[in-house]
Amino acid sequence: MQNFWESCLATFRDELPPQQFTTWIGALEFDDKKFPGELLLTAPNRFVLQWVRDRYLSRIELMAKEYFGTDMRLRLSLPETQVVRAERSAPDGPSHASNPVPFRMPPAPTVRESAYAKTRLIPSLTFDSLVTGRANDLARAAAQQVAENPGKSYNPLFIYGGVGLGKTHMIHAIGNYLIAHNPDFVIRYVHAEDYYSDVVRAYQQKAFDTFKRYYRSLDLLLVDDIQFFNNKARTQEEFFYAFNALTEANKQIVISCDTYPRDIEGVEERLTTRFGWGLTVQIEVPELEMRVAILKKKAESERIVLPDDVAFLIAKHLRSNVRELEGALKKVTAFSRFHNTDIQIDSAKEALKDLIGAQSRSITIESIQKTVADYYKIKIADMHSKKRTRSLARPRQVAMWLAKELTSESYPAIGEAFGGRDHTTVLHACRTIADLRRSNSQLNHDVHLLTQVIRG
Amino acid sequence: MRQLTLDIRAHQEPSLETFIPGDNIDAWTRAGALMDTKSFESLYLWGPAGCGRTHLLRATAQAAQTHGRPALYLDAGHWPQTLSLANGGLLAVDDVHSLPADAQHQLFTLWNAARFTGLALLIAGSAPPADLPLREDLRTRIAQALVYQLRPLADDDLARAIRAEANRRGMDLTHEMSAYLLRHCRRELPVLMGVLDALDEASLTLRRLPSLSLLREILNPAQSRPGPR
After folding, report:
1. Looking at the partner chain, which of A23, A101, A103 has a beta carbon nearest the beta carbon of B25?
2. Among A129, A239, A396, B89, which residue has the fewest nearby CB atoms (within 10 Å)?
3. Residue ranges of the domains in chain B?
4. Whole-model pTM?
5. Mutation choice for A interface testing from B81, B137, B138 by most A CBs within 10 A
């Protein structure tokens, strides 16, 4: 019976544009064994399911009737495994889906949670998954040292660096290493904003004793983005006491920040001095080779085949942080999946355009006129002039055609910009160039080149 | 005598079905898939005004609601003081490029908590992530999302879109008229829809059927100015 579906696919492939075919029909899985006498089509998600039901189902039914000579029952459904898969992809899952919670209050740890969940660590952020290079090798060595000898080597460990360079990864790695080797350790990862929220909540619920007891009971406290403590006096005060209590008891504190301790704005000096007591290490912007390695590692962990030239291309274009690299990899992968091709340099270039906006420079009629005038070595004024010699008129027509193709301007507006010409002149120019491109290869080449230059 | 009209034009709620994807089919399907309660992706769509950002965001939020996923559509200009959305919801944020500082802060916090709250994010703005004038920690998170540039519709798709809209309003828009519109107006959907509005209204007030000559009169009242720019 599989032949039926193959013939269906062939029909739709002929009828639909390739992208539509891939999106709606190619995405369906066909099964005629599961339910005897019925045909089962599985859609990857609800959107595709609904679309297929509305647009194509009756057509498929008709084809089935023709093929089998009788009415066939067609069943359209979602994959059974989708639920399980999706739940796994959201680590903590929306398990209390119907309980609205205010956004700014991440749920406080509750007794029902597993010990690991209470740490708020992300399991995938480990030393193993961390790429090391010149930009972070010192920080990594220090982090590893701290993870192996908590509270004894450097306390606090203060890691600083720009946005998206992997500070969070580094401090989660310490936490994950420690809990793997000391399952009884009480560990907490907290973003500075969440610490602040906890202080506010303690205020509201008059529960400062519980708050203090909790933070002082930790064996390892990981505080991310401490610059967010700026100008929050009560939060700073609470942290000051927690800091003192923990360090006196030889409990480890690790802090991340976007800057060197002394440069943090709006944070009391008694805190910033203390931040410098242990070891302060910097994470720098990764160099090209390291960026490539980060991409390769990420691809490997997601089982994506990423050719070297594509990794280099991405790494060359996105220099400033790791987050953008990850976004680019995600984009390139999605693009190749959608178009059903392997990841290749050409498709990667195409995918990257969306990310860095190669064509985002706004194209105006003026910029087109200037580029075309430069190209043909005529004056910009000739774009507006009434002269009709071929050497001026042709470039002018090319510029009009480009204005029509590359901007949203109307014909009258384009005419206006070319010395107040009538819209029919523009229409004529566009038709002329469209025709000439087919017969005159030099002109076709010019137009192609100009389009590239103008688009940037 | 002019007929007075009541402003009871049925403006259509944007839906995923009425979105004409053109070259944006990939972005459209990805956004549409977010209606599913089991999808936790973060998407960022960007493009110039009029490229369909708002339509896609509103439509996806609406579709999610219909399918039982709590969803909220917010634009930068109307940001509420406090936000509340059930876990596992979908948050659509429009015009992120002009998000005020407070709202940026809130969005940043939400983004960090999304992992725990099962929140899906659908963000739209006018520029690629690299050029967004936002705080760096939020901007890079947006860059980490799956990013799509929304590309303007080709003339054929624009013509299809305005004919479909005219049809929905019960107006008879001939091919000649839609071709005229595309020649004389900026080829952007909001502009073209605006002209349809004007044509609809003129047809009611003047009690004349929509026609090419009525269209010409609207676009060139004094026969001197070119169409709306």
Report:
1. A23
2. A129
3. 22-149, 155-224
4. 0.74
5. B137
